[in-house]
Amino acid sequence: MNAASSRPNARQRRGRHLKALRRGCEDILTALDVGDPPDVFALCAQVGRSRGRSVRTAPVDLRDSGVYGLWIATHEADFVLYEARTSRLHQEHIVAHELAHILCDHHGGGDLDDATIGTLFPHLEPSTVRGMLGRCGYLAAEEQEAEVMASMLLTRVRRRPAEASWPVPAEAAQTLARIENVVGPDVQGERP
Ligand SMILES: [Zn+2]
Questions:
Q1: 73-78: long-range contacts (C-beta < 8 A, 24 or more apart)?
Q2: What strands lie across the sheet with 78-83, from one edge to the other?
Q3: What is each CA distance from 150 to 68, 108, 156, 158, in whole angstroms?
Q4: Which of 31, 101, 148, 191 is a good FRET partner for 141, with 20 to 30 A between their CA atoms?
Q5: pLDDT above 80 for 155
Q6: What are the residues whose beta carbon lies below 5 Å from ligand 1 (ion)?
Q7: How close is the Cα of 71 to the center of ligand 1, in Å?
């Protein structure tokens, strides 16, 4: 140990701050008991069941809005809209990020202009939608917390595909294929 350890420098302070953030996020996840869902969409469904308030995901064309994802809280449910025209990997990150805002209780709503609101909600007045969305945008600290939480969520769901990539015995592979035929590898119906 050198003398610098007695007074933390900026990098050390950042490290401690991140550690504290991660611990806070871990506590939230532990309290939720979301199990081991196969992907971030199943995770949303599981979080909904665990909290007694459903989290619904929907792909939307958000290209002109300047945002890739959006959380909208209504009286009944939390809706996570994500960019339809981007890669699956990017979509998973977007959904994880929005889910993180929900779990961290951030209450933002994105920063949308009237044109975007008109596209997303053609039957509603922009002012009504703004009221629905509540406070627009998030604080930088909230964004940082959401990113930490999102990466933890993604680590959690991505552990499984890695484990499943071990060679599967022939009969087990057939069973797996049958299950996928019945359940479908993608329950969100996003495939073209
Ligand atoms: Zn955000």
A1: 73/102, 73/107, 73/109, 73/134, 74/132, 77/48, 77/53, 78/48, 78/53, 78/54, 78/102
A2: 55-60, 78-83, 69-73
A3: 15, 16, 10, 12
A4: 31
A5: yes
A6: 143, 146
A7: 9
pLDDT digits (tens, 9 = 90+) for 12-32: 888 999 999 999 999 999 998
For residue 97, the CA-to-ligand 1 centroid distance in Å is: 6
Give the Cα-Cα-Cα angle 147, 162, 189 (nearest 5 degrees): 70
Q: What is the whole-number distance in angstroms between the Cα of residue 68 and the centre of ligand 1?
A: 10
Share of the chain above pLDDT 70, in %: 70
Q: Given this model, what pLDDT does residue 164 score?
A: 43
The mean per-residue pLDDT over the stretch 127-131 comes to 65
Question: What's the CA gap between 136 and 37, in Å, rounded?
Answer: 31
Class of residue 101 by CB neighbours under 10 A (exposed 0-12, middle 13-18, buried 19+): buried
Instruction: Give the per-residue pLDDT at 90.
Output: 95
pLDDT in tens, 53-73: 999 999 998 877 778 888 888
In the chain, the domains with their CATH numbers are 10-161 (1.10.10.2910)
Please tell me the distance between residue 37's alpha carbon and the centre of ligand 1 in angstroms.
Answer: 23
